[in-house]
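Something for you to look into today, if you have time. Just paste the record in under my message, thanks.
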Amino acid sequence: MAENNPTIFGSILRGEIPAERIHDDEHCIAFADIQPQAPVHLLVIPRQHIPSLKEAQPTDGALLGHLLLVAAKVAKDAGLQDWRTVINTGAEAGQTVFHLHVHVIGGRPLAWPPG
């Protein structure tokens, strides 16, 4: 799990880097992004180290569903009525931390397409 995770998220999970956790359970944590792209920009990360969605396995299905349910919970808890969830997969798609994570973005109108 976190002990074999060399990313900044691994450091956060191990407590080496502080993060104000807004959700914490046995499967994942959530906290505010330090480089927000909107008034509300939260991250939901699994405790299990999965580098990206393309490395996820069928056995990770329950965890992936849990991440989305937590994303909805933290969005609602943040007072959002509408929000965007984003999972960047791979460098060309904008993934910069290679530990699967869900962005929860809202608090302003969001344009489409995003990139």
In short: The first helix runs from residue 8 to 14. The radius of gyration is 14 Å.
